[in-house]
Amino acid sequence: MSDVMIRVENLGKKYMIGHQAEGRSNYVALRDVLADGAKSLVKQFTGRGKGDRQTKEEFWALKDVSFEVKRGECVGIIGRNGAGKSTLLKILSRITEPTTGRVELHGRVASLLEVGTGFHPELTGRENIYLNGAILGMTRAEIKKKFDEIVDFAEVERFLDTPVKRYSSGMYVRLAFAVAAHLEPEILVVDEVLAVGDAAFQKKCLGKMGDVATKEGRTVLFVSHNIDSINRICPKTIFMKNGSIYCYENTRESISKYIGLSFVNKNTKAWTLSHVHENKAVYFLRAIVHNKDQLIKSDFTVSEKIGITFEYQVMQEGMILTHGCNLFNEQGINILNSHDVVSDIRLKKRIPGNYTATVWIPENFLAEGIVTVGLAVLTQEPFIVHAHEQEVLLFKVTDPITGESARGNYVGDFPGVVRPILKWETLLCTKAL
């Protein structure tokens, strides 16, 4: 028997997008509907007005998608909005029919694609558990055996006999995930819906998905924009771009390519002045990443000092401000947060005008990989963030393996989020006889 649980071959999904005729308003009144009805009758008899029809355009949400997932694998799916991730899961869940290609699914599929998927709003939580089990082909005895485990995981015991239409979105997701994960489907498909839950429950779900694959031998497909979550539980990841698979590799490689393509050429950023009318006290003007000679760069070696400089404008008199910088690696892990606690100007009241701030990342500090930069200007007492943007800049750090970094001459995978050269001391304690 083959270990392949999901086989997708040349999958494609086409939609027809309508375009309103030029000059036609999106707002349609009752008189317009009545008038259009009368015009259509006239056109049927006269044959006139064919050029007034709404134009349509083909849009391929998926195109030539092929991959396989084996039994016991937990595979992540990443990509920007519109990449085709959700369309793919809808086809795998038999919600949407493909236009081209074929899908083979070997086993029962439980899907959690959006809040309320598979639940009847008028039925209670208890009734929906049995309904979902029946849909998966389970007997009442099999569902009853899992019932207490589901309720305990979902933490909705008090509301078990309440119609789920009265549940909050968080309660909905807790119960839906518990049902999908515990009723023993061979294939579990989970979309970004887990983002609705609180942090503690998200962590609980990630642990369960990992157990479903590694301990219970079932197959998991997990779509998420949370790179850290994908990295924690998915050994392999599909990176989708423009409706196709850009790469299907180990998670580290897929994430690296995703981040690199998503934020290409981001060693500089300039803000337009269109948001000045928002009456903000502070707003950003420009940001760059550069070396010690002020040369703007995208690639640095681990032994280089890296400067991050940004310019901003202060609009109000008398503000006492400081600066913040956040660095994230390609797994979405926050490497460091830094506030300016040393410069003299942080203690002085500002006059309106343009200011620049530079933070220096020392040589032999960052590990190799792609780094994204977030910036902030804030008041510390009371704590108020006046300007804050994530993923402002991006740069890459490489280790040329010349023996000048903490790895020395070691050529294998060298883990860790930072790579300082630490002071070591070695002493001879006892001479050999």
What is the count of structural domains?
Answer: 2
The best one-word shape is globular
Structural class: alpha/beta
Distance between the termini: 63 Å
Q: Percentage of helical residues?
A: 10-25%
What is the average per-residue confidence, as pLDDT, rounded to a whole number?
85
**Percentage of β-strand residues:** 25-35%
Sheet of most strands = 6 strands, mixed
Q: What is the CATH C level class of the largest domain, in words?
A: Alpha Beta
Radius of gyration: 28 Å
CATH superfamily heading of the largest domain: P-loop containing nucleotide triphosphate hydrolases
Q: What features would you describe in this structure?
A:
The chain has 433 residues and is α/β, with parallel strands linked by helices. It folds into 2 domains: 60-262, Rossmann fold, CATH 3.40.50.300; 268-398, Distorted Sandwich (Coagulation Factor XIII, Chain A, domain 1). Helix content is 23%, strand content 33%. It is built from 8 helices and 18 strands. The protein has helices spanning 30-46, 85-92, 125-135, 140-154, 169-182, 199-214, 227-233, 251-262, and strands at 4-19, 55-70, 74-78, 100-105, 109-112, 187-190, 219-223, 236-241, 244-250, 268-270, 282-290, 299-301, 306-314, 322-328, 334-339, 353-361, 369-379, 384-398. A 6-stranded mixed β-sheet has the order 5-6-7-3-8-9, sandwiched between helices. Strands 12-18-17-14-15 form a 5-stranded mixed β-sheet. A hairpin with a 2-residue loop joins strand 8 (236-241) and strand 9. Helix 3 (125-135) crosses helix 4 (140-154), helix 4 packs across helix 5 and helix 5 (169-182) packs parallel to helix 6. The mean pLDDT is 85.
